[in-house]
Structures are given as C-alpha cells and as structure tokens.
Automatic annotation (TrEMBL):
Protein name per Swiss-Prot or TrEMBL: DUF6249 domain-containing protein
Keyword Transmembrane helix part of the UniProt annotation: yes
Keywords, in A-Z order: Membrane, Transmembrane, Transmembrane helix
Domain DUF6249: start-end pairs: 10-107
Coiled coil: none
Highest taxon above the source species: Bacteria
Transmembrane segments: 6-23, 55-75, 87-105
Listed Pfam families: DUF6249
UniProt keyword Transmembrane present: yes
Length: 117
C-alpha cells in the first residue's frame, strides 16, 4: 500500500473538519458583531424551518430508499439497465418520492394545526 492511498482519506476528513470549523467560527463572529451593535441575534433562528415531523421525514425517506433498492435490483436482474445505474437511479427516485410525500403530509398537518388555533 502506497503512502498516498493512506494520506488521501486522512487529508479529506481533516479538510472537511477544518471547513466546518471555519464556517462555524465565522457564524459566531457575525452574531457577536450583530449583538455588539445592538441588534437582535434571534433573526438567525427565524430562518430555520419548524422541524416538527423528523420521524415521518426520515421514515418515508428510508422506506422509499428501500423500495428503490429493491426495484433497482429487480430491474438489474431483468437486464433492462446496468446494475449500478438501476440501483442508484431507483434509490434516488424513490427516496425523493418519500421526501416529496413527507413534505405534503407535513404541510397538511401544519395547516390543520393552524386552523385549530
């Protein structure tokens, strides 16, 4: 095993960690500057979406991904599409369909909760 085969993954993970740390530091500096000028730091929290149904979202994503892998394997065994293309394409299609479905269910529940208030 050559040295570059070992160094590439190590450098990749270190680079990702450094980028995430730098992004977090600049976000913190921005908030501190806003507070020092008398601004309200809660404006950063208002952009975050209310994530009240994470189990639904992840559940439908994983169900869709599982169905996508199953359908991809069936299509690959039927020799309609290459193995890798079938599995990855159906994985993405059905996973996206699961997220799409969860969006509409969450939106329906949110409007129902707003109407009940």
């Amino acid at each position: 095993m050559h040295a570059h085969e070992t160094l590439i993954p190590i450098v990749l993970f270190i680079s990702i960690a450094v980028v995430l740390i730098v992004i977090r530091k600049f976000q913190n500096d921005e908030r501190l500057a806003l507070i020092e000028k008398g601004g309200d730091a809660n404006i950063f929290n208002s952009n975050k979406k209310n994530n009240s149904f994470p189990a639904l979202r992840y559940g439908l994503l994983f169900i869709g991904a599982g169905i996508g892998i199953l359908v991809g394997n069936i299509v690959a065994e039927a020799r309609i599409i290459d193995d890798e293309a079938a599995i990855f394409s159906f994985l993405m299609i059905f996973g996206g369909a699961g997220l799409f479905t969860s969006y509409f269910i969450e939106r329906k529940e949110a409007t129902k909760q707003e109407n009940d208030r």
